[in-house]
Amino acid sequence: MDISGNTVLITGGASGIGYSMAEAFVDAGSEVILCGRREAKLLEAQKKHPSLHFRTCDVADDRQRSDLDDWVVTRFADLNVLVNNAGVQRDVDFTKGIGEFLAGENEIRINLEAPILLSGLLVPHLTGKKGATIVNVSSGLGFVPAAKMPVYSASKAGLHAFTMALRQQLLRLRIKVFEVVPPAVDTELNPQGRAKRGGFKANVISTEFVTAVMKGLANDVFEIGYGMTEGFLRASRADLDRSFQQMNARW
After folding, report:
1. Which of 2, 121, 6, 4 has the alpha carbon at shortest distance from 73?
2. Which positions ≥6 away from 110 have C-beta within 8 Å?
């Protein structure tokens, strides 16, 4: 895809990977709209880059997601790129029953259902647009699941499968569908879980990862990994099983 001259909507765009992608698209000469749940963070992003547009929205909420669709297609007629980046990650221990899962945010609704529904809402608008593109941000844990984060891993595995199928469906509409597969990146994701692990801090910073992502998008690499996840994309089932055992040996 041509990363310049687009009108781009990025969900979860106020921080982390989403914000770094916003900066990269702005630097490349694209118009960028952010959506997220924290207005203060969105205002902070806009203060750094005044050309950014934003709307406060929880994409997991049916009404807010529908309102976002109406607002963005009305106000930004040239919208041609959707980046489904919003997500949450939680440690959930099912050896204790269902309580932990029910007590927090629903990862399936936010990480899987929301991008499916938002993509479906926007496909009619994207159809016929020059450079029409959907970018889904999954995770390496969708290929090699983490026992500590079983629902997150499942939601990202589902997003991977959906992205593959959607890519095939939308070929006839000339809408490109990319999957971005992050490794552990130093973001605000899962602060409670990271605190339990002694304030875990990933070695990969979001700007470093997004530099590789933008290069992949520009070269029409439809599954974009980095570091460990680049290996996951090429791995055999036996390789993935070995990685799973190594990752989860201390569970």
Report:
1. 121
2. 59, 60, 86, 87, 88, 155
Cα 184 from Cα 165, distance rounded (Å) = 25
Cα torsion 206, 153, 81, 76: sign: negative
Q: Residue-wise pLDDT tens for the chain (251 aa)? A: 999 999 999 999 888 999 999 999 999 999 999 999 999 999 999 999 999 999 999 999 999 999 999 999 999 999 999 999 999 999 999 999 999 999 999 999 999 999 999 999 999 999 999 999 999 999 999 999 999 999 999 999 999 999 999 999 999 999 999 999 999 887 666 557 556 656 566 668 889 999 999 999 999 999 999 999 999 999 999 999 999 999 999 88
List the structure tokens of 144: 């090699």
- Give 7's contacts (C-beta < 8 A, 6+ positions apart): 30, 31, 32, 33, 76, 78, 79, 80, 81
Q: Is 22 helix (H, G, I), strand (E, B) or coil?
A: helix
CB 181 within 8 A of CB 235: no
**Is 226 labeled as catalytic in the residue annotation?**
no
The token pair at 228 is: 């460990």
Rounded Cα gap, residues 195 and 75, in angstroms: 41
CB burial class (10 A; 0-12, 13-18, 19+) of residue 235?
middle
Catalytic annotation, pick one of 152, 209, 226, 232: 152
Residue with tokens 């994309």: 233
Torsion of CA 135, 141, 143, 144, to 10 degrees: 170
| Global model pTM greater than 0.85 | yes
